[in-house]
Amino acid sequence: MSLAARDITIGYDKKTISEHLSLEIPAGRFTAIIGPNACGKSTLLRALSRLIKPVTGEVLLDGKDIHGRPAKEVARRLGLLPQSSIAPDGISVAELVARGRFPHQKLIRQWSAADEAAVVGAMAATGVTELSGELVDTLSGGQRQRVWVAMVLAQQTPIVLLDEPTTFLDIAHQIELLELCVRLNRDQDTTMVAVLHDLNQAARYADHLVVMKSGEIVAQGDPREVMTADLVERVFGLGCRIIDDPETHTPMVIPRSSLG
Amino acid sequence: MTPDRTERVDFGRRVLVLRGPGVSARISLKPLLVTVVLMLLALAVGVLALGTGEFTLSPAQVIEALAGEGTRAARLVVVEWRLPRVLLALMIGAALGLSGAIFQALTRNPLGSPDIIGFNTGAYTGVLVATVFVGNGYYLLAGGALAGGLATAVVVYLLAFKRGVQGFRLIIVGIAIGAMLASANQWFIIRMNVQAAYSAALWEQGSLNGLGWAQVTPAAVILAVLAGVLLAYGPRLALLEMGEDAAAALGVRVERVRLVYLIVGVALIAVATATAGPISFVALAAPQLAQRLTRTPGIALVPSAAMGAFLLMLSDWLAQRAFAPTQLPVGVVTVSVGGVYFVWLLVRQARR
Q: Coiled coil located at which positions (chain B) (predicted)?
């Protein structure tokens, strides 16, 4: 499977965010898209996940234009955790996770053994099996996010995109979620793409970084090579030192202090 | 299909899983039970209504007549005179319940109902325009109702559109447009000749009086087609309730699917309006009452339809019985009972 953007121009209404952008998502790896606020990283993710249609150029899924394919077929290849989703009132965890099976279902095949196995597996992988019968409204923010991830996993797609999955989570749940992504990437060979805010988390958990500024991709590659003090200064306007993360030996950004 | 008892997922409610080669279904028991009970209740009231009137019959006599037995007079009264009205009450009630469920789900708001946001007022305007400028006849009126309802929906959507449609904005705009259309309707009625104005004013109350088999067949055919579309679209309405992005990510073509639901929802209310006039509050109340009884996640279509059928059947029976021999238009009953519910709903919404 492959996902790529070819020379795309994207934006909202009449406002262009990115022009003539090209990007290849490396298969079977965990890609993090980083950059300052309003650099177009979420817009790029929305274009990759066919939520917005490029003005020019095309997004290719397995070499074919993503907008020219049946919507359900695309949803069997590519899963997405959007930034904002609404859990209907009174829905239980298992019911929400089961909705991830929609692209695999037909009018006369609403709940096959394969659907059930996928839901059981997704809930186990995200550790929400014990919450299965609980109402989603009653869960904590961290639990709820894991339930949404479980729904995306139940979709059983070879590619999973996550739009700022760690926002609104406390630090422990952030780490837990990112490690879950890494595990899925390793164990099931799922291609992961996440928009992340925290540079250290991106460098630690992703094995491919895409760095954006003002709608353009300014650098991409292995975090150990990409994440330099010079790049952080250039992209974020932040003076820093890069040290070795003692836990994972990945680059770690230590901002310089101006307080003297 | 046979029940599969090797249940491994706890859904937090009792579900029935049916599986056979290539076919499978998962049905929550409570909504199923509530739907069946509501349908039985609606049928029971229907039997009572069939026995009600100048020629009174016991339920047993009614059932006899329906089965083709009993006296000829009883069969004539029950099957030829009263049955069409009961069937229409059930069908139109179900249509109103479905239409309310669709719009409440699309707007994610219990107030986002076609009778509140002016769609049935607009459908009625369409009917009046057709009567004044073209003529009479069921299909003409149904066409007028559909055109009026759709035009209202388009205007409301365009005016409410601001970076996507927000539920609450749509409701406020809809109420305003509905109020304007209501005055337009009055103007049309004043301009008509006395005879037409009288029947139009009666009709505006929403009434099943004097409906016969001639109205049953077209309404049944159109409603069956619309129900078929809803069936084919399956769980897409529920997925839309999770937000546009989430639905699109699961393979729902959001724009197209929303347009289809909009048209089907307007068509349902248009058929109801063309047949019986603008009946208020059933579309508003049925989906919410059904949801309280079934505890389904979000608004469910089938229990809403069953609840709508039951509510309108009951209201029509009350309309016939309350001040007998004077027959009230059913719309008067739904407005009186529904009005109380509407006030309660507004108070509850305002407190949020």
A: none
